[in-house]
Amino acid sequence: MSMSDEELCQLVRAWPKLTVLNISFYVDINDTIVPTFHGLINLFRLCPNLMSLALVIDATKLEGIDLKCTSSGNCNTNLESLTLGNSPIKSPRHVARILSDLFPRLQRVNLGCWNLPPMNLSPQTKSEMERWVLINNFLGEFRVLRERASKLCRSSPRQMSIS
C-alpha cells in the first residue's frame, strides 16, 4: 500500500488516542511510496499515546533532519514495540540515532518479521537484517550512554556561583 507522509498524517488525524497501529512490515520498495522519518515524527505528534507501530518507512531520506537534535524536544516515551520491516536504510548509525532521540525508552526494533515470508525469501535478507541488528546494537549503546549521563547529572549538580 503506497502512502506518503501527508497521507499517513491524514489517516491518523482522526484518532489522536490511538495506541496500536499496524500498517505494514513489508512492501515492494521499488513500486511503493512509503513515509519518511518526517511522517513518523508527525505521526507521533498526532498520536502521542502510540505504544506499538508496524510501518515500513524510507529511512534513507534524512534531508531536513538535524542528527544532533532529532526530536527537538518532542520525544515519545510510550513506544514499546516498533517494527519497521524492510524499510530501506543507508546509515545504521544515523537511523539508530534518530530512533534513540525520538523514542528514548525503545529497547530495540522488532526483527521478528524477518523470519516470515516474503521477507525471509529475499536474496538480500541476510545483509538487510544485519543492518537492523546493527541498529539494535547502536540503540543499546545509546541507551547506556544516556543512562550514564543522567546518573552523572544527578550525582554531581553544577556548582552555581553567586556574584
Notable characteristics:
single chain, 163 residues, three-stranded parallel β-sheet, mainly alpha
Question: How would you characterize this protein structure?
Answer:
- It is a single chain.
- This protein has 163 residues and is mainly alpha-helical.
- 37% of the residues lie in helices and 6% in strands.
- The chain has four helices and three strands; from the N terminus they run αβαββαα.
- It has helices at 5-12, 37-46, 92-102, 125-155; strands at residues 20-22, 52-54, 81-83.
- It has a three-stranded parallel beta sheet, with no helix packed on it.
- α2 (37-46) links the parallel β1 and β2 (52-54).
- α1 (5-12) packs parallel to α2 and α3 packs across α4.
- The relative contact order is 0.13.
- The model has no long low-confidence stretch (mean pLDDT 89).
Q: Assembly state here?
A: single chain
List the helices and strands in order. HEHEEHH
Radius of gyration: 17 Å
Any low-confidence stretches, pLDDT <50, length ≥5? none
* Coarse morphology: globular
Strand content: 5-15%
How confident overall, as mean pLDDT? 89
Q: Helix/strand/pairing class, anyone? A: mainly alpha
Task: Count every beta strand, where a strand is a DSSP E run of 2 or more residues.
Answer: 3
Span of the ends, CA to CA: 63 Å
* Count of helical regions: 4
Characterize the biggest β-sheet: 3 strands, parallel
Strand order in the sheet with the most strands: 1-2-3
Helix content: 25-40%
